[in-house]
# Entry
Amino acid sequence: MASLSIIIPTKDRGEIFLKTLQSIISASSSSDTEIIVVNNSLTPIQLANKPNNVSVYDNPYDKNSVFSSRNYGASLARNQVLLFIDDDIIVSKESIVYALRFHDENSNACFNVNWQYPPELLAEMEKNIFGKFLMKTGFTTMRSLYGEGWKDNAPFIARSLASFFFCIKKDDFMKIGGYNEKHLHEGTDIDITDKLIENKITIWINPLIMVYHNEADRIDLMNWLQRKKRFGVISRNAVNMGDSSHALHYTGIKVLAFRMIYMFQPLLLQLLAILNKLKANELGFKVIDALLGANICVGYNSTK
# Structure
């Protein structure tokens, strides 16, 4: 069975990160695994009773780049299989065992597992319109966000990679050149997917193995809208770097309409608070959907 280097980039996630780290320590306790934490924050990470196989490093390069920290972590890894895990993923023993075995049985391949929000987080989200909106529109499961082509009952070859739980042989990672650090946040999964395909490294998803995506600190509407605005910026960045497949097309009237919605966002948020008290879910969903479109559009059109 292969030995494993787990790389966790993190920045100011507090208890969310600690829950992730503890789940990884527990799940990997019986295996030959090293855990590399790469801190992108100016605040040092202090870990009490740290196991010998856990190492914490400050990223000496671009602290605003999760991709820089992933590449740095890979450069430190001593084992032949790399597993990149985001700092808000709660893993199971099954997921770590699968990572250890996968590359014994597959060559020229990498994989993702499946994710969903933790049950206790979903229960909390049921209490407000925004949480219900996220659940209704599928933001709380990998299956819903992946869309067409998803299979429930067996591993399948995927059209794209997601870095939340990304397992690959170190030699293959180095062969493709690692992550492109010039991309903005989230956008580089586009680039690394292209590199994997170009190098004939098959991307697999195993939907039968589940981890929890613990975004309990990010289930806040303003935080979420800001991230969607950054998504618009990322899409424009990808287009500017030559990837026209991520172009978003808006008519002049639609841009104007979205800019007006964005201008009145504070008032719409106040309206949403009233609708939440009235439990007017359907109308509230329409307000959130309009704010979502406005933030993506404004982000996309903020750079040329």
